[in-house]
Amino acid sequence: MTQFMASRTQGDICLFGAPFDSTTSFRPGARFGPAAIREASYGLETFSPIQNADLEDCSFMDKGDLELPFGDPRPALTAIEEYTAGIIAQDKIPLMLGGEHLISLSSLRAASHVYKDIKLIHLDAHADLRDSYLGQKLSHATVMKRISEVIGLDAVRQIGIRSCTREEYPNVKRLRSDTKAIIGWASGSPCYITCDLDILDPSVLPGTGTPEPGGLSFSELIDILVPLISKLNVVCMDIVELSPRLDPSDVSSVVAAKILRECIIALNNNTD
């Protein structure tokens, strides 16, 4: 699938990588995620039996990876926001590959400038609602807090959360939802879907910086993602926190690539 993706230079869905992991709190390496997904996709068929559809019939393009500075996250976040804004200005749907979860703040900011009533659906093992982590306001552990400051906490819903602090827990209970309820809540609104791959159980995807036991299976995640994408007005999306060098088997990268295939097909079906 990699060679096929690389040949796609025009389309309604714009895939790009944001290889950044400077605030990763436990095990770094998510910066290698976008390249690993592309490499793993080489072994996948373009056809999805799950959706009875083929990438060959989809309108999408792959713009490759951004060059992002390390260290202070602010320059990288600015670059990602500007790049995402440029995609949206062309009436295309950004589909960003991470990279750590903080990068979602940038794409969300870009989308929120255009879509004033945007709603965010957060699939993750971790709440990411801390106000700061180790004294830092900008961290993959604070990204949902920073996003809520942009669009409001009531514009956020979460699926899959199974790790949080005592202080985060009241908001976790408030934001916790499921596929059916979210479709009803977000119907008619522009939506941003962010999928942290550690929502999956570590037995399915061990290659992530902060694995949490008790997660979803691959099929359970697809059964959530495909209906959300197919039935909502998704204007921006990301898949983040693959850390491929933590899984020598490369199975995690293959899983991530297959999730990407299903997301592209579902997005394309929604834009037809």
Task: Itemize the secondary structure elements and their pairings.
Blueprint (H helix, E strand, L loop, with lengths): L1 H5 L6 E6 L14 H9 L5 E2 L4 E2 L5 E6 L7 H17 L3 E6 L4 H12 L4 E5 L19 H9 L4 E4 L9 H7 L3 H8 L3 E7 L21 H14 L1 E8 L10 H21 L1
Parallel strand pairs: 1-4, 1-5, 5-9, 6-7, 6-8, 8-9
Antiparallel strand pairs: 2-3
Helix pairs in contact: 2-9, 3-4, 4-5, 8-9
Main attributes?
272 residues, alpha/beta, Arginase, Chain A, seven-stranded parallel sheet, two-stranded antiparallel ribbon, 9 helices, 9 strands, globular
Can you describe this structure in just a few lines?
This protein has helices at 2-6, 33-41, 73-89, 103-114, 143-151, 169-175, 179-186, 218-231, 251-271, and strands at 13-18, 47-48, 53-54, 60-65, 93-98, 119-123, 156-159, 190-196, 233-240. It is α/β, with parallel strands linked by helices.
